[in-house]
Design a protein that fits this description.
Elements: E1 2-3, H1 6-14, H2 38-49, E2 53-60, E3 66-72, E4 75-81, E5 88-89, H3 101-109, H4 118-126, E6 131-133, E7 139-144, H5 149-163, E8 168-173, H6 181-189, H7 194-203, H8 222-236, E9 242-243, E10 245-249, E11 255-259, H9 266-271, E12 275-277, E13 280-282
Parallel strand pairs: 7-8
Antiparallel strand pairs: 1-9, 2-3, 3-4, 4-5, 6-8, 7-10, 10-11, 12-13
Helix pairs in contact: 6-7, 6-8
Amino acid sequence: MEKKSIALAAGLLIIGGLTGAVVERFAVMPDMGAGVSLGAAASLLESVTHGQAKAEKVFPGPGGLTGIEATLQGHPTVAFATADGKYLVAGPVLNTQGEDEAHAAMMKLGLIPKPTSAATMAGKAAHAASFVLGTSGPEITAFVDPNCIFCHKFYEEAKALIEAGKLRVRYVVVAFLKPSSAPKAAAILGATDPAAAMAENEKGFDTVTEEGGIAPAQNPAAATLSAVENNTRLLGESGEMATPTLIYCNQKGEPTLVHGLDKESFKDFVAHIGNLQNGACRK
């Protein structure tokens, strides 16, 4: 799975590796008696980021860490300090269930919106700029980046089932992995036959450089660029910038969203899903 999670972006932002992160909301919390004082947190940030980041509030973090709500160039984010106040933890902080505590803290603080439900995502994706491959079988939605190697592997696995009439895939093309992703996405969505353009991208996919095979669009129409941006923004509503992100109906007829696929057989996976049609689960 290819991803640039919001929490990871936040960590990179703190250490100066990423600028221009977009966060729409900001909410502060009072000092909740965390182990490291606000003053100590501020000094740690000052030292590590050379004055680029500013500590706003502190709060109790997991495992004895102290959470730090901070800003860098006006962008709010979260990092953690160790109990002795000497080390800064920036990026994902995973618990035993594999859940990212940094991401959860950002949502709790209101720094990022909570993920949109799978059902709502399914409905929105059905009306996004997309195209469907296949004419029969259950339908699933796949958010893909032209330069995503895991999306390429998904495309190849799905292709055989599509050709056998056992699967339909609604492709929602996004762009965030590489600078060439946006013009390549525009080349696909702006093509007279997006399915053929997608096939060209996957046929020429370079697995060494992880680059899609289609030539980037040189002068894409404004409407096409807008479609790519809207698709990418919609993916962000899922709570994570990750590809492939799949939406399907489970055996109970409930919309389900997953970032990537487990290691189970894709054929077995398809055999146990319901039909997602026009953004809703159908019998």
